[in-house]
Write a structure and sequence with these properties.
Layout: E1 2-3, H1 21-24, E2 43-44, E3 55-56, E4 60-62, E5 69-74, E6 81-88, E7 91-99, H2 107-120, E8 124-130, E9 133-143, E10 149-161, E11 164-172, H3 178-189, E12 192-193
Parallel strand pairs: 1-5, 2-12
Antiparallel strand pairs: 3-4, 4-12, 5-6, 6-7, 7-11, 8-9, 9-10, 10-11
């Protein structure tokens, strides 16, 4: 796995935490607030047996995989980490986790908001069925390298969990090709969300951070840099 930009790291692959999550959770992860099934993930931290072996980014725990590169995305104005992006095989999956109400999910409302935002930029959206329920495919105007007009595609997936909402944005080949998205979707299922006990308004970003051992790399630990850029079309207002 590579963490950051171009720096390789060696990771012991003997124990892949994501492979045992369903068994550790007893095969009965809690249903999301909207009643959808999460027995195969993503998981709440209360639903896994141990956090050992994960890359700990605060609100998100990520199971490392060979060939995976992680990029932390930083908000320029505040310098806080606002998203993590998983890059693999020419595709990307941006991850953000938000606080949510106990009694209801956010995904239906957020899809509508994303559609309005994309429409205001001259783009188009389409709701489609997917492996995580209803998804949203967004097409935004973009210039091609030859100067002609084109568009870029992003596929939004969302899962409502216990007092949290996890959103993924697939880009590159994975946005338009299900086969290309398969490995990233599998990794999305292995994400563990750490909501915390502090009260938070719905839609507030759960806090992401650099790994605790970032300043002093440990043997076998991933190395990384922190890119100075943030999400583009993926804000929740």
């Amino acid at each position: 796995m590579v963490f950051g930009r171009g720096r390789k790291a060696k990771k012991d692959q003997a124990a892949e935490p994501g492979e045992a999550q369903e068994a550790a959770a007893g095969g009965s992860a809690k249903d999301a607030a909207d009643g959808s099934d999460r027995t195969s993930g993503p998981f709440d931290v209360s639903e896994i047996e141990s956090t050992d072996g994960y890359v700990d980014l605060g609100a998100l725990l990520i199971a490392p995989r060979e060939g995976l590169q992680l990029r932390l995305e930083v908000e320029e104005a505040t310098q806080r980490v606002v998203a993590v992006t998983m890059d693999l095989d020419g595709s990307s999956l941006q991850l953000q986790a938000f606080a949510a109400p106990r009694s209801e999910g956010l995904w239906d409302e957020i899809r509508e908001q994303i559609g309005q935002s994309v429409g205001s930029q001259g783009g188009q959206v389409e709701e489609i069925p997917g492996n995580f329920g209803t998804e949203l495919v967004a097409k935004l105007p973009a210039g091609n390298a030859d100067g002609s007009s084109g568009y870029r595609v992003a596929r939004f997936i969302g899962v409502d969990g216990p007092r949290w909402f996890l959103r993924g944005v697939l880009g590159g080949d994975a946005a338009v090709d299900r086969d290309a998205a398969a490995r990233l979707e599998a990794m999305f299922r292995q994400i563990v969300v750490v909501r915390g006990e502090n009260p938070m308004p719905p839609r507030d970003l759960l806090q992401l951070r650099l790994p605790k051992d970032a300043a002093v790399p440990q043997p076998g630990a991933p190395e990384f840099e922190r890119p100075e850029r943030g999400p583009e079309i993926t804000q929740i207002g």
